[in-house]
Amino acid sequence: MTPLEQISADLGWRESELASLKILLVRHDLSKTQHAVLLRASWAMLYAHYEGFVKTALTIFYDEVCKRIGNCGNLPKETRVNALLSVIKKIRQLPAVEMLEEIEEFCNRHHGSSPQFPEVDTKSNLWPNLLADLLRGADIQPDIAAKHKFEIQTLVARRNEIAHGRHDLISEIGYYVKYESVVYDIMYEVAFLVD
Length: 195
Known about the structure:
The structure is a single chain. This protein is 73% helix and 0% strand. It contains nine helices and no strands. By secondary structure, the chain is mainly alpha-helical.
């Protein structure tokens, strides 16, 4: 399966799951309490799919980079930093003399090595600034994070409030659908950019 096929398959099951929840949300035989519970569950699921898709798409991207790019020296600067992050962190911890030696030999030792990317870490709260950082680390322009900054902040914050016991956050399906549309916009844009 090609990377694009993997990303498309991931996006497909996420869309199906969100569509199934929305079918339940529009039913008229639910009590007010049941409807409120479904709205909160749908919001939490919407966030989970936003975060999960970004993580999956970037992981597929990095796996493909590792297959196609033989050495770190051929990567764009931001992606090269990401691939060499564990080495950079180790160098920072060295005593001054050893650090200087590593710095002087850094290109010779590490630019020819195969890329080894860290796990895509969304830190359980994929805020807009973190989304932008993750995209930049893959040498992808983070415009989508800036474009939807307010909506992403609201999505994450409301998901956290639901997790902490707030009940009165999402009052009707129209409000949910607005954010669902934004999440789809982000997921499709990330898929396009990763491709």
